[in-house]
Amino acid sequence: MTGLPTSSLQPTSLQHFLAEQYTAELQAFRSMLDSVPAEAFAAAGLGHSPAWHALHIAEWVRLTVLQDRTPNYHHLGWEDKPWVGPMGTEAAPLNEQADKTAILAQLDSVGAEAAAYLAAASDAEMQGMTFSPSAPTGERPRLAALGLHVRHIAYHRGQVALSRKEQE
User: Fold this and answer.
1) Distances from the Cα of 140 to the Cαs of 19, 84, 131, 149, in angstroms?
2) Mean pLDDT across the chain, nearest whole number?
3) Alpha-helix runs per DSSP H in 68-124
4) pLDDT tens, 137-159?
5) For the chain, where are the E strands, in sequence order?
6) Which Pfam families match (predicted)?
7) Which residues, at least 6 apart from 43, have a Cβ–Cβ distance to it below 8 Å?
8) What are phi and psi of 10, to 5 degrees?
9) Which residue has the higher pLDDT, 3 or 57?
10) In 3-state terms, what secondary structure has residue 93?
11) Which sign, positive or negative, has the C-alpha torsion 157, 44, 56, 139?
């Protein structure tokens, strides 16, 4: 903060802060995915392929941030749980064998939509409870869910990085 005039510091709303955090983490995740050669993108490493990780995060951003309940989820990672069944009754927009460019475009599109939603969200939209299957009651406070989800993106970025090191 030294060297900056106080008048140039603008307060940041919670919504803009969240939008910035999602944008930053998704950009870091995207950079890691970009480092994976196209021919290795659908190859599993440490359990899942980079393509799966990208689709997984795109789906969780849709579910957690956008609260999109379109029943075409196939990469949530909990497909053996009863609550996932009704969420995957339609075909997935993309699968792991799709072109790397298409998968990354999907991730970018969902990420941009999420950042725009968060930046424009009302205070009321940031309050209350939201669906969170890993919580004991199946839901958690909206802000807590959003914070956990940013860390979830970072976790999967690390998984892709570890997988890349294993393959070198």
Assistant:
1) 20, 18, 7, 12
2) 91
3) 100-120
4) 999 999 999 999 999 999 999 99
5) 129-131, 139-141
6) DinB_2
7) 49, 167
8) -105, 135
9) 57
10) coil
11) negative
> Rounded to two decimals, what is the model's pTM?
0.91
Condensed to tens digits (0 to 9), the pLDDT of residues 81-135 reads: 998 899 999 999 999 999 999 999 999 999 999 999 999 999 999 999 999 988 8
Tokens for 163?
A: 């997988």
Residue 164: CB atoms within 10 A of its CB come to 17
Q: How many Cβ atoms from other residues are within 10 Å of residue 163's Cβ? A: 21
47 Cβ contact partners less than 8 Å away, ≥ 6 residues apart: none
Angle at CA of residue 97, ends 77 and 78, nearest 5°: 10
List of domains in the chain: 19-167 (1.20.120.450)
CA distances from 113 to 18, 42, 131, 162 (A): 13, 25, 19, 28
